[in-house]
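Board notes (copied after class):
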Amino acid sequence: MIRVVLAEDQGMVRGALSALLNLEADIEVTATAIDGEAAWRELQHGRADVLVTDIEMPGLSGLELAQRVQRHALPIKVVIVTTFAREGFLRRALEAGVSGYLLKDAPAERLAEALRLVHRGGRAIDPQLALAAWSGGDPLTERERQVLRLVGEGMASGDIARRLNLSQGTVRNYLSEAIGKLGVGNRIEAWRLARQKGWL
């Protein structure tokens, strides 16, 4: 039996996925969670072989949840099911040790097949997305991504500098580098493009 914890903030989607998976003779949804922190608490109980999670959720995102599973070396496979067909998200998911990455518009039976595959130690990645992910990389450094995320929260350079314990000049340098790499005119355009690509 493959034991699954399902993390999805949209109630209707969570209920539908849970019902579909429980129809499978060899799959049991042992818990559902409305956000990443709730999912993390469920994973502590040790009643899961696979975590199925969305990417964007309140609080802890699916990617951050996958990173936490990896950092704590939990014996749990992670499968992301999302609407985000962005190569940047896939690349970051793979770096976080994710075993599966499927789109929500895929046929329902694909998810059950993917869970069986990753449970056996394989990988289940949407093939079109996998191709796109390795054709063009994320040009930003981790620090540039951190700075742009805070730009997206509406922070000024001084606020970002205090949050990250950097000088304002250093923050301006990171922003200038990111703007140059992305070929845009200002910090807001840089944040918008990086988010659109799934790099943030």
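Comment from the instructor: The longest helix spans residues 168-182. Strands lie at 2-7, 27-33, 50-53, 77-82, 100-103, 124-125.
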